[in-house]
């Protein structure tokens, strides 16, 4: 694992990168741990705003999973948030090997304005994106169907929406499949 708090610390590599972005405590680090079947690869905390740098995880010397700092936590100092924003922008501007961005959204909360801002940023940089709703086990099927409809209408998003649950491991195989698929693209 490599943590970078400045552009000069980003790894110089030709390996494909897969990014996980979302609000604080949406489950980015937990999902990375589950995908890699390693309980403590990415640090998990119940305290929002714990990930304060961009974390790069080298997986089997073949690809890199990237855990971005969460957004939307109101108790984080404004200066810190601005620094994270600059760091994330400098990362997105400069990564030639970035294959796919997973935008994680808490299924209990739905799509919020700051999620839309991140999705627009991904579109601005012309990266491929997958929408992932986390904490699926905490919502009903009716709420799930509503999220799918909202995503398709609000985001004009026609790709398959992924639902994940750390508790029952739903969605992880689909994410792993996409990582494998996009790893092979040049």
From TrEMBL:
For the biological process aspect of GO, one term held by this record is:
division septum assembly
Entry protein name: Probable GTP-binding protein EngB
Gene this chain is encoded by: uvrA
Fetch the Pfam families from UniProt: MMR_HSR1
Ranges for domain EngB-type G come to: 14-185
UniProt entry tagged with the keyword S-adenosyl-L-methionine: no
Annotated SUPFAM superfamilies: P-loop containing nucleoside triphosphate hydrolases
User: Where does it sit, as one GO cellular component term?
Assistant: cytosol
The family assignment reads: Belongs to the TRAFAC class TrmE-Era-EngA-EngB-Septin-like GTPase superfamily. EngB GTPase family.
Q: Which HAMAP family match?
A: GTPase_EngB (MF_00321)
Which GO terms fall under molecular function for this chain's record?
A: GTP binding; metal ion binding
Q: What does this protein do?
A: Necessary for normal cell division and for the maintenance of normal septation.
Q: Which PANTHER family match?
A: ENGB-TYPE G DOMAIN-CONTAINING PROTEIN (PTHR11649:SF13), MSS1/TRME-RELATED GTP-BINDING PROTEIN (PTHR11649)
What UniProt keywords apply to this chain's record, in alphabetical order?
Answer: Cell cycle, Cell division, GTP-binding, Magnesium, Metal-binding, Nucleotide-binding, Septation
Entry's InterPro entries?
Answer: G_ENGB_dom, GTP-bd, GTP-bd_ribosome_bio_YsxC, P-loop_NTPase
* Source organism (scientific name): Orientia tsutsugamushi (strain Boryong) (Rickettsia tsutsugamushi)
Q: Which domain of life is it from?
A: Bacteria
Please list the cofactors this protein needs. Answer: Mg(2+)
């Amino acid at each position: 694992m490599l943590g970078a708090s400045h552009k000069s610390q980003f790894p110089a590599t030709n390996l494909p990168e897969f990014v996980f972005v979302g609000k604080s405590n949406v489950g980015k680090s937990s999902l990375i741990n589950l995908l890699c079947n390693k309980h403590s690869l990415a640090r998990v905390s119940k305290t929002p705003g714990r990930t304060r740098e961009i974390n790069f995880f080298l997986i089997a010397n073949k690809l890199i999973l990237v855990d971005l700092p969460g957004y939307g936590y109101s108790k984080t100092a404004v200066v810190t948030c601005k620094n994270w924003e600059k760091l994330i922008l400098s990362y997105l501007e400069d990564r030639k090997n970035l294959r796919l961005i997973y935008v994680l959204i808490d299924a209990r909360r739905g799509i919020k304005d700051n999620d839309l801002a991140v999705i627009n940023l991904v579109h601005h940089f012309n990266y491929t994106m997958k929408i992932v709703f986390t904490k699926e086990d905490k919502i009903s099927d009716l709420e799930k169907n509503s999220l799918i409809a909202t995503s398709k209408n609000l985001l004009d998003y026609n790709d398959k929406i992924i639902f994940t649950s750390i508790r029952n491991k739903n969605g992880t195989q689909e994410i792993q499949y996409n990582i494998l698929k996009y790893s092979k693209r040049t």
